[in-house]
Amino acid sequence: MLRELKKVVEESGKDAQEFQQTANFVLANQFVSAFKHGQRKHYLLVESYHDYFSNVFDALGMKLYVNENERLAGVLPVQREAFVRLKTDETLFLLVLRQIYEEKVENFEIDNGFVATNTHTILDRYVQLVKREIPTETRFKDILSLFSRHGVIIRGKTYEEDSKNMIINITPVVRLIVTEAYLRQLESFNGVDPEDDDIELEPEEAQQASNPEESHDGGNTVSDSKESNSSADTTELTKKED
Predict the structure, then answer these.
(1) Cα separation values, 186 from 90, 154, 205, Å
(2) How far is CA 196 from CA 130, 142, 190, 202, 226, in A?
């Protein structure tokens, strides 16, 4: 890796620290977007030196994903051992976000790959689709924080007329972390914890997640949750050390 770093530095005329910082940033955040504040420089470096970063992450057991149309780059775990289980409510909220995202896309309500919604809409859809009571305010904030850390959403301002209703921008990452199989699970979910019926991502679906040309045909993956239990569904998250 040091030899490759030296080579790309010489060819690019850039400082080695730039490549190291971008690699660390991607590992810490899993996804970067050219449209997200503070991430554009990292996305552009990954896009420009795709081969170098692909080799770096491959050595770490991760697959580099770059979608030039949506200006999105990130890493997806290759080995099943890198996955952790999300709690059921976290998985269900991901499914809700994916469904809202697809509806907005179909209605052409999309801007640079992002779609806008709000927390009230998300909670209403959660109750409507999964027939569950909404989580406590603290729990919901924790779930949103998890999704924000991994680039699934960008939290915006609250509405002046309702300080508890926050603008939420759903990013294209949701398509990478939620497969079509999970989407079908939501449609058939009856409000009972699926503790005896966990969905496993099929290997071919994981392969599709790493192909940017197929990113609009199915869902894919996320990154770490500190919490897990026996009644959780499996979603692809990369483990992180906090």
Answers:
(1) 13, 23, 18
(2) 17, 26, 14, 18, 22
pLDDT at 182: 66
Identify the CA nearest to 179 among candidates 204, 151, 144, 150.
Answer: 204
Residue 17 CB contacts under 8 Å (≥ 6 apart), including other chains: none
- Please determine, for residue 125, whether its predicted confidence score (pLDDT) is greater than 90: yes
Residues 6 or more apart from 1 whose CB is under 8 A from it? 55, 56, 59
pLDDT, one tens digit per residue, over 40-78 is 999 999 999 999 999 999 998 889 989 888 889 988 877
CA atoms within 13 A on the CB side of 65: 32
pLDDT digit string, tens, across residues 78-93: 765 445 567 889 988 9
Task: Report the distance separating Cα 89 and Cα 157, nearest Å.
Answer: 24
Q: How far is residue 128's CA from residue 130's CA, in Å, rounded to a whole number?
A: 6
Smallest Cα–Cα separation from 232: which of 180, 197, 201? 197
